[in-house]
Amino acid sequence: MKTNLKLSLIAGLLAVTGAVYAQGPMGGQCDPAMGAGMGMRHDRMGKMDPTRMQAMMEKRDALLKAQLKLTPAQEGAWKSFVDARKPAAPAANLQRPDPVEMAKLTTPERLDKMKALREDHLKTMTAAMAKHEEATRAFYAALTPEQQKVFDAVSMQGHRGAMGSRHGKAPMPVKP
User: Mapping DSSP to helix (H, G, I), strand (E, B) and coil, where does residue 38 land?
Assistant: First the structure.
């Protein structure tokens, strides 16, 4: 009898646990401030506050400029380099299709429309990257060999791979 009671209790506990687990975190209810129980807000996922991002870029640029010890003759190249890295306006980055017009299209037509939008976005991104590369090469050419070593060390800090990445962080001081 005791064995049956224990088995029944265990089975009931497993059933309740399974039901709660199937409903997801918080019993299937979603707290607006939480995203799928991960402590993230869905409305901010993958997005960063543009003013905060701009402040981080300015801080990184100021530190890099101080480390490079630029001369007055190099200021023009520095300004061109920094200006070329400024992000485009958000509206120009991604054009969203009109949902009403998309609803009127067949599935293959919608796929073609999305492909065309994606290709346009890719062209815009490629052009911005080319502009950044050109400005970086011009700025690098204006640096002295010692400054180039500092620039090389700082620019590689964001390319250390997933385990040692410093993305979004200010460059570490480099000793020339």
Answer: coil
CB-based contact 132:84 (threshold 8 Å): yes
A 10 A CB-CB count for 8 gives 10
Q: State residue 146's pLDDT score.
A: 95
Question: Which residue ranges in the chain fall short of pLDDT 50?
Answer: 20, 26-38, 40, 161-168
Tell me which H or E stretch contains 92.
helix 90-93
Query: How far apart are the C-alpha atoms of 67 and 161, rounded to whole Å?
Result: 24
Backbone angles phi, psi at 38, to 5 degrees: -100, 0
What predicted TM-score, i.e. pTM, was given to this entire model? Answer: 0.57
Q: How many CB atoms lie within 10 A of CB 151?
A: 20
Q: What would the two tokens of residue 168 be?
A: 């979004």
Burial of 175 by CB count in 10 Å (0-12 exposed, 13-18 middle, 19+ buried)? exposed
In the chain the domains, ranked by start, together with CATH numbers, are 48-159 (1.20.120)
Reference 72, options 134, 142, 4, 131; nearest CA is: 142
- pLDDT value at position 50? 79
